[in-house]
Specification:
heterotrimer; A mainly alpha (about 270); B alpha/beta (about 325); C alpha/beta (about 325); A: about 270 residues; mainly alpha; MetI-like fold; about 75% helix; C: about 325 residues; alpha/beta; Rossmann fold; 8-stranded mixed sheet; 4-stranded antiparallel sheet; 13 helices; about 35% helix; globular
Chain lengths: ~270, ~325, ~325
């Protein structure tokens, strides 16, 4: 019962976010960049401007619709990179142990010690600005939690009898990691990946704000949110609607992640 | 080595470095320290010992998962180690694990658990794979239509049947059974013991039966070896070991069984606990716990030597003690 | 057993398990008595209700398990409804318990000497100096070598056998009337197990402590206890003197258990024979069958076994059996 609800609501919200991401430009009323009109600055939500307007009189509804594309691309893209790096390092470190484990642990601690935004800044400086480099920069700097968690899981699963049995049956290390370890560590990894997405959407804003991400007039949820900081008391809708968009996306992905984890676990699948 | 031996272990020693950091020397753990054993085709060897005696390390070396520090393990004519072809070893030696809950991957159906090893070993025809899985399930007393269920849908006894099926699907010659019934409910154990004996007769298997339950070992074994701190202290046929035990440790194991039936066999107990294998006592390693220890036992280690036909004991006082009723 | 007041009387105990969609009887109609200094065993497989019966005597049942009926009397006083504070005062002082895994029952952050001393401070109002000295004495009693040194050790510095000795020292510190031992030696090596059992027997008989021993090992229980109750699926199916249970089991389940065990010495006497199997599996609490709960696995079942649960039938020598076709 509960599983179905998670999956349905999470799936629904995620589908909504993706729909907006793909079809946003058609849903927008106006051009999000060009239609600045200082006459309409900071209007509160109305029949004409559903979500109100910003300091430069641009329609927030349209900007949220357009912004979905950038935010979702960066969020999903960089989380995919993060999860791939973190899981690979974590699972191999937990499974093999020894000097490789020490090395990965050291690397993880280093990543945790350096503020990831500064690290991302450095990478952006090398790669140059742009959407792709933004995705790579955020993807290379936020894998330490995934790595920690998957290492701990792999350590626990490694000692299980079925891993030993696979070894006795002649499975190689890589095959054991893919068929025995990874499926049994996936649950928490999915949760971390979806939880982390909110963070990367906001980090994109910070980097864009510094001029390294998407060029300022192009809208993204994160940059809209950071632009709206000064007016949060006078014109709350400026921050409310992009914030809501991030909230709904992250909530949807979290519920979907939870639901997927349960569906992937045969034990909870047949439990009633 | 006789040509007929399926397993021949000759003076095997496996030592591991333990601990040791940047500034300290690692200590040597002598997990297995000079063990010789052999098993013929179709024969069962019972291996008895308490925690830390080295039986698990011994099992790992037979599976080619650790390398000997000294001596060698020959399985079916091939010396095994970590550089031996893993697939070849896997087709000869398999293992049944103690805990039927931890030893099955919770995310794989029974079919996948049994079919994946077949595919790995080159049987790719899906009809043949399905047939062999179904046949194997029947042999261990499960229905072929249960193949698409997950482990948690089975009881402990059924899971152990699946574990046995997995060990036998590659048709090995030697099966290491590591405490195969001790994690099961008492009323289920007989089913699994009977099944293992039936399969042995059907498939001509050899067993290395690792157990601390002497009743199970007596019931299932042709020969018995008693292991203590990395060494074999007594070995012989099951009758010799259980009717005329000579080593004080074997006698202590028998005396420790809380069964009215064995109370008649005497109450010659060991005291204290198994010392750390990192720091074994000098002389006979059993001397601090032995009720019969003399100065000689503390000074030099005894050698495993024959006391009657096919019965070897490693004890300085074995001759004298044989007159004392165990 | 004399007509004197019993130390412990458990009468018609019922423990219910609250699961997703209902309440199920995990233990039902369990009654037994323990006289002062007597040793009684509860034997059964995992899930038969033996451990939760013991926990209910300690007042330690927690959700989803709850007492749903019956009486527990300690020297005549009903204790099943005592307020938590009074129950706490009883625990340790009059009823003590030791568990299977001493590592989890001991506090890893305190020395074992302190943990024993706490019992004297808590239950007897001793001051810490005296209590520490008595703790060393208690360690000596459970035959821990070098007790002064070991008193200052932390649990992880001791071996499994030593830890269980410490548990026994804690349990017996206040000389309780009843010691409940739940699989106290299952996690230990066989030779160590037998030493711990001997120690328990020796100390309890010296102090006149009664023992309620919980185990899946019929041999172990008969070794320690004078009387044995065999439990199956939440009910006591047979109660016998220890000497008789191996030689003259009455209930088909007990008979099956005894016959299915490969016991050392059997092969030499009778040759290798196929072990008698008990077919089927132990039912789960939420799926207990109607009538006699053993009937789906029983070779003697008749129509009535499937419908009406048998009552306990008294036999000679105070033995009891819950079966229509016993013997």
């Amino acid at each position: 019962m509960k599983i179905q609800a998670n999956l349905a609501i999470g799936g629904g919200l995620t589908a909504l976010a993706l729909f907006v991401g793909v079809f946003g430009p058609w849903l927008a009323h106006t051009d999000p960049i060009m239609d600045a009109n200082l006459m309409n600055a900071e209007l509160s939500p109305s029949a004409e401007f559903w979500f109100g307007t910003d300091q430069q009189g641009r329609d927030i509804w349209s900007r949220v619709m357009y912004g979905a594309q950038i935010s979702l691309t960066v969020g999903i893209g960089s989380q995919l990179i993060n999860t791939a790096i973190g899981t690979t390092l974590g699972v191999t470190a937990g499974y093999w142990g020894g000097w490789w484990d020490d090395f990965v642990n050291g690397l993880t601690n280093l990543m945790l010690a350096i503020p990831s935004l500064i690290f991302a800044l450095a990478i952006m400086a090398i790669l140059g600005p742009g959407l792709t480099s933004l995705m790579i920069a955020l993807g290379l700097t936020n894998w330490s939690y995934t790595c920690r968690i998957s290492r701990a899981q792999a350590l626990a699963v490694r000692t299980q009898g079925y891993v030993q049995a696979a070894r006795v049956l002649g499975y190689g290390d890589v095959r054991i990691m893919f068929t025995q370890i990874l499926p049994n560590t996936l649950g928490p990894i999915i949760v971390i990946a979806t939880l982390g997405m909110g963070g990367t959407i906001l980090a994109e804003a910070a980097l864009s704000f510094l001029g390294l991400g998407v060029r300022p007039p192009a809208p993204s949820w994160g940059s809209m949110l950071s632009d709206a900081r000064e007016t949060i008391t006078t014109a709350p809708w400026l921050s409310l609607f992009p914030g809501l968009a991030i909230f709904i996306t992250v909530l949807g992905l979290n519920l979907l992640g939870d639901g997927l984890r349960d569906v992937l676990d045969p034990q909870s699948r047949s439990r009633r | 080595m006789a040509d007929t031996d399926l397993l021949a272990i000759e003076d095997l020693a496996v030592h591991f470095p333990v601990g040791g950091g940047m500034f300290s020397q690692p200590q040597m753990l002598r997990a297995v320290d000079g063990v010789s054993l052999r098993i013929r085709p179709g024969e069962s060897l019972g291996l008895v010992g308490e925690s830390g005696c080295g039986k698990s390390t011994l099992a790992l070396s037979i599976l080619g998962l650790v390398d000997p520090t000294r001596g060698r393990v020959v399985v079916d004519g091939t010396a095994v180690g970590t550089d031996t072809d893993r697939l070849a070893v896997a087709r000869t030696v398999q293992m049944v694990f103690q805990d039927p809950y931890a030893s099955l991957n919770p995310r794989q159906t029974v079919r996948r658990t049994l079919a994946a090893p077949l595919r790995l070993h080159g049987i790719t025809n899906s009809g043949e794979v399905a047939d062999r899985v179904a046949e194997m399930l029947r042999q261990v007393g499960l229905r072929p239509d249960q193949a698409d269920l997950y482990p948690h849908e089975f009881s402990g006894g059924q899971r152990q049947r699946i574990g046995i099926a997995r060990a036998l699907i590659l048709k090995p010659k030697l099966v290491i059974c590591d405490e195969p019934v001790s994690a099961l409910d008492v009323s289920i154990r007989a089913q699994i013991i009977n099944l293992l004996l039936e399969l042995q007769a059907e498939m001509g298997l050899s067993y290395l039966m690792i157990s601390h339950d002497l009743g199970v070992v007596e019931h299932m074994s042709d020969k018995v070896a008693v292991m203590y701190l990395g060494r074999i202290v007594e070995t012989g046929g099951w009758r010799e070991i259980f009717e005329r035990p000579r080593h004080p440790y074997t006698r202590a194991l028998i005396a420790a069984i809380p069964d009215p039936l064995t109370r008649a066999l005497g109450r010659e107990k060991a005291h204290g606990e198994v010392p750390s294998p990192l720091n074994p006592p000098p002389g006979c390693t059993f001397n601090p716990r032995c009720p019969h220890a003399i100065d000689k036992c503390r000074a030099s280690p005894p050698v495993l030597s024959p006391i009657e036909e096919g019965h070897l004991v490693s004890c300085w006082r074995a001759e004298e003690l044989s007159t004392v009723r165990a | 057993m004399s007509g004197d007041m019993n130390l412990l009387e458990v009468e018609d105990l019922r423990i219910e398990l609250t699961a997703d969609n209902g309440r199920y009887p995990a233990v039902e109609g369990v009654s037994f008595t323990i006289a002062r200094g007597e040793t009684v065993g509860l034997v059964g497989e995992s899930g038969c209700g033996k451990s939760i019966t013991a926990l209910s005597v300690m007042g330690l049942l927690r959700h989803p398990l709850a007492l749903a009926g019956g009486k527990i009397r300690l020297t005549g006083q009903e204790i099943q409804d005592l307020p938590p504070a009074e129950m706490r005062a009883l625990r340790g002082k009059r009823i003590a318990m030791i568990f299977q895994e001493p590592m989890t029952a001991l506090n890893p952050l305190k020395t074992v000497g302190r943990q024993i001393a706490e019992m004297y401070v808590l239950h007897q109002g001793a001051n810490w100096n005296d209590a520490d000295a008595r703790a060393v004495e208690a360690l000596k009693q459970v035959k821990v070598p070098a007790p002064e040194r070991r008193a200052r050790a932390y649990p992880h510095e001791l071996s499994g056998g030593m830890r269980q000795r410490v548990m026994i020292a804690i349990a017996l510190a206040c000389e309780p009337d009843l010691l409940i031992a739940d699989e106290p030696t299952t996690a230990l090596d066989v030779t160590v197990q037998s030493e711990i059992v001997d120690l328990m027997k020796e100390l309890c008989s010296a102090k006149g402590t009664a023992i309620l021993m919980i185990s899946h090992d019929l041999g172990l229980v008969t070794d320690i206890c004078k009387r044995v109750c065999v439990m199956y699926a939440g009910r006591i199916v047979e109660q016998q003197d220890s000497e008789m249970i191996f030689n003259r089991p009455q209930h088909p389940y007990t008979q099956g258990l005894v016959a299915s065990l490969p016991r050392l010495g059997m092969r030499a006497r009778h040759g290798r024979q196929r072990l008698t199997e008990i077919s089927g599996v132990v039912p789960g609490i939420t799926a207990y069958p109607d009538g006699c709960r053993f009937h789906p696995r029983c070779g003697r079942k008749t129509e009535i076994c499937e419908k009406v649960a048998p009552e306990l039938t008294p036999l000679a020598d105070g033995a009891l059996v819950r079966c229509y076709h016993y013997g």
